[in-house]
Amino acid sequence: MALSSQQTDELLQAHAGGTVFLVGIGGCGMSGLAHLLLDLGYRVAGSDLVANEETRQLAARGAQIFVGHSAENIVSLSPVLVTYSSAIRADNVELLEARRLNVPIVRRAVLLAALAHRCSAVCIAGMHGKTTTTSLLAYALENLRGAAAYAVGALVPQLKRHARFPSGATPNDLFVIETDESDGTLNEFKPKAAILLNVDEEHLDYFADLEAVCSEFARFAAQTEGPVFFCADDLRLAEMLASHRNAISFGFHPLAAYRAVPRPGASGFRGSIFEVVHRGASIGEFRTHLFGEKNISNATAAIAFLHQHGFAAPDIARAIAGFKGAARRQQTLFADSRFQVIEDYGHHPAEIEATLAAFKAHAAGRLLVAFQPHRYSRTQRLLRQFATCFKQADSLWVTEVYAASEPEIAGVNGERLAGAIREQGQTVEFVPALDALGTAVLKALRPGDVVVFMGAGDITRTAHEVARELRSLPMSDKQKLAAELSARVTAATVVRADEPLARRTTLRVGGPADLFAQPASEGDLSLVLQFCREHNLPFTMLGRGSNLLIRDGGIRGVVICLMHANFSRIEVSGDKIHCGAGVKLKAIAVEARRHGLTGLEFLEGIPGSLGGSMRMNAGAMGSWLFDVIESVRFMDYEGNAQERKAAEVYVEYRGCPLFKNHIALGAVLKGQPAPIQAVTERMAKFSQKRWDSQPAAPSAGCIFKNPKTIPAGKLIDELGLKGTRVGGAVVSGEHGNFIVNEGNATARDVLNLIEVIRERARSARGVDLETEVEILGQDLHG
User: Fold this and answer.
1) This model's pTM is above 0.70
2) Model confidence over 641-699: pLDDT tens digits?
3) DSSP class of residue 407?
């Protein structure tokens, strides 16, 4: 007869200090159990097919580890209890021998639930995010209380081990547990509190359908003694717990009891900033190294739990701020100025789609993805969802299915998944062998790339091998400089060598920057400027690349770009709009419209950022940027920031001399209150006028300043130069003052075409056209 968790606890209590044997002890869940048993004074032994980091940790603590399974292991040790994981087959020789000898046998979850009886269990459950949420809560309690009881289903680098029972733990102490719903064992737990993250079409090798999954979670919530925290953004959970007497919601939903409010533009590639609102009032601002909406939601779950347990919000904020995640959950294996290698455990389409969206939103370069499907049954049932969840990947590889002890299903394999992805119009390469997968990824990598290895199987081996290979690559002098600069600034600041600049300009031409830096803060910008002074490196400021022509040889020294999210914030207060230098002018116009402010509609048609446009005093539709600026914030080349009223700043036609030797950090713009409909109509009118007169093809905007006697576009039209071509550069047929790139133009093509136009204007009309577009860098052989 199978033992219940209560009976298992009684058995263990009766045999204090006895031997417990764990079949499959090298798995994360099983090795965590072994740590808990060692903490409680039991002798621990176990077997697995191979040794790993988990078994080495246990051996160091005195556990007896066997590599390989043998009936003799059971005979020689006479354990009081044998436990096994769901990955172990029923015909395992050790399980068969234990049954022959009448040694009690329990599943992993039953033993974990038995140990949960000894403290106030807090169970975290859900298809996605439970490892991260459990480890974050455990980490926070460690910081808040000095010691915590926890069991996490993965290694957590910032915790000494991934499961622990501190000495002297009492029944009133919290025990944070990651609970696994995959095999129907949630009902073994009767916790004091629970956190439910989500329900989804998952583990359909066990559950009949999604309705069965929901029923399992409903029963689990019903047998939870105290509060049940649930994600209000999950409609199934919200419906399930609508009438639960102890339910407390969290998430982004407006009606959530603990509502997460991301700070606009405050999430960086290495983290997020958000506030939490409870009962209509903000309880504070929180920071996490994790990124993406799912992780903000998971962090809010932990914050809600801790707040309900009496911890002050500032203390919670400090307790979670340093957490960097569990192993294989957005884990950075390698990062330098050239490449970044990340490993993620995501193996369900919903997880993959959310994770890649978060990466793509903050990655400055290409996003490369290598995926190993996990289980034949999951691949078969969710093939349609898998076919569309990789859209954010710039390059994608799929390898063979990791069986996870499942029997093979005919016709279900990695090649079929790759074919389903191709049918959706996405390019994908099927690489069945993991060794070949690593080779393919390394061959495709180029500086600036972020590569993500995804899956719950042994693709982790390939991810670590690629990271090791990249560590061994020699660095050029420029790459060494980039590495030195990267070490000085925070992790959120992007630093790269030989960065292609063509993709960073609206004309799409130009060579590379020796060094490229995208500071994450004013402090990091100051450090970059200091680095340039120390190394006698010239620097060039780059906005969003409009009104700019970079020569084919690129730019020497350091190119500094203030396009990080922290320089792209917009905050509206009354009739004033506070903006960072990286904000798009179009975004300012849209935000002004949303708040019913007029006077800024003309910005909608200007393609640049605020910082670069202030330097040029950009204008359109008869208005100029400094007409609507109230104050500016800027930094001198020594790294000192200051502010000045706009009235104190001298400006001129197409220029602001202040920013010839200062760096624009942001500005406060002012609008006039007006009906939103009126602002919308005026903006639409400007937009229509722009699209009627300007080309859609890549361009730098107007190439020439208007002479006093005639608009440059009209002059070029009258000279019959529309359609004139040099290489891939062509005078636009829509507007004579635009040169467009038809896809293969070089900077030299554009420069030569500029000279053709200037020479024709001089010889035919005596007009000396002056370029408005800024020309930077060196010729290819200059």
Assistant:
1) no
2) 999 999 999 988 777 889 889 999 999 999 999 999 998 988 888 777 665 567 878 89
3) P
The count of other CB atoms within 10 Å of the CB of residue 439 is 16
Write the single-letter amino acid at 559: V
For residue 390, give every residue at least 6 positions away whose Cβ sits within 8 Å of its Cβ, in sequence order, or none. Answer: 352, 356, 369, 371, 396, 421, 426, 428
551: phi then psi, degrees, rounded to nearest 5: -65, 160
| Domains (range + CATH), the chain | 5-108 (3.40.50.720), 118-321 (3.40.1190.10), 334-471 (3.90.190.20), 477-561 (3.30.43.10), 568-686 (3.30.465.10), 697-776 (3.90.78.10)
Closest by Cα among 368, 366, 384 to 424: 384
pLDDT of residue 204: 59
How many whole angstroms separate alpha carbon 511 and alpha carbon 775? 12
Query: In Å, how far are 325, 448, 558, 775 from 514, measured between CA atoms?
Result: 34, 13, 6, 17
Helix, strand counts (H, E) of the chain = 24, 40
The SS3 call for residue 232 is coil
Cβ 582 vs Cβ 614: under 8 Å: no
Bridge-based pairing state of the strands 281-288 and 272-278: antiparallel
The DSSP secondary-structure symbol of 117 reads T
Question: In this structure, what are the phi and psi dihedrals at residue 358, rounded to the nearest 5 degrees?
Answer: -65, -45
What are the tens digits of pLDDT across the range 267-306?
443 568 899 999 989 999 998 888 788 889 999 999 999 9
| Average confidence (pLDDT) over 54-66 | 93
**C-alpha span between 158 and 146 (Å, rounded):** 14
CA–CA distance from 386 to each of 347, 380, 382, 383, 418 (Å)? 9, 10, 6, 5, 9
CB 238 within 8 A of CB 256: no
Strand segments, DSSP code E, in 49-104 are 64-67, 81-84
Q: Is pLDDT above 70 for 782?
A: no
- Cα distance between residue 150 and residue 36, in whole Å: 9
Rg, Å, the chain Cα set = 31
CA 500 vs. chain centroid, Å, equals: 23
Strands (DSSP E) along 57-144, which ranges?
A: 64-67, 81-84, 105-107, 120-125
Torsion sign (Cα): 181, 186, 188, 193 = positive
Is the Cβ–Cβ distance between 241 and 221 less than 8 Å? yes
Pairing label, strands 619-620, 623-624: antiparallel
Tell me the torsion sign for CA atoms 721, 722, 727, 729. positive
Which residues, 6+ apart, have CB-to-CB distance to 108 below 8 Å?
29, 30, 33, 83, 84, 85, 86
Q: What angle do CA 357, 361, 362 make, to 5 degrees?
A: 125
